Amino acid sequence: MAQAQSPKPPQYGQPQKPPKYNNPEPCESDYVTSTSYKTKITKTVTRTPYKLTTPRQQGVTSGIGGFTYTPIGTSGTITIYNGIVIPSDYWVLNHQAYIYPGVTGEYTFTSYNADDIVLLWFDPLAYAGWTRANANLVQVYDTPPQGFTGYPGETPVSFTVRLTAGTYYPIRVMAANGGGQAEFHLLVTAPDGTQFLGPQTAGSPYLVQYSCDGTSAPRFPAIGQQLT
User: Fold this and answer.
1) Does residue 194 lie in a domain region?
2) Pick from 131, 160, 172, 191: CA 20 to 30 A from residue 139's CA?
3) Which CATH number covers residue 92?
4) What is the pLDDT of residues 40-88, one digit of tens each?
């Protein structure tokens, strides 16, 4: 059986025409693609299964993270995006999108209270070649326990990068839990300090799934056929 051909990675760093925010049907602006896997994950998560495996759920979301499951010694369920309910104990969420900044300046990605792990890739590595070792941001649940009642929270982990207005930048965020308590929070702020991606954020023109012309910021490879 012939192997499916994935699209070539896009060329980055050159300003492009803005997406048609008033026409989200062909451009899919204001959203992040999200996929969910049921897996026996640990904080040593690696990339391979999530590039080539069909996910449990797939959809789009205008927000990211904001999940907490705190009971000790038990498991239950958490509600992720669009009312989808998944088991709280073992899961991986994989998000992919493009940032299309309207203002040139420094943009900051911040993870806090990760349980068990949050990883972020930016620019070409978000599209292809992403591994645990080359993530731009990593926060792992570790000693001391973080973020739960009665325990000190761990210092948030941030990644700041200067972006140019009118340029597409791919991003990828993975979060996972390997049993027990679970927590996932990620905030993305613009140069003026406003938050445009985080828990329960409304659609933002900073975010697109792909460009309207299909070449400046092409669709990400199909889930299960991600570039290695």
Assistant:
1) yes
2) 191
3) 2.60.120.1560
4) 444 444 455 666 677 777 888 888 888 888 777 777 888 888 888 888 8
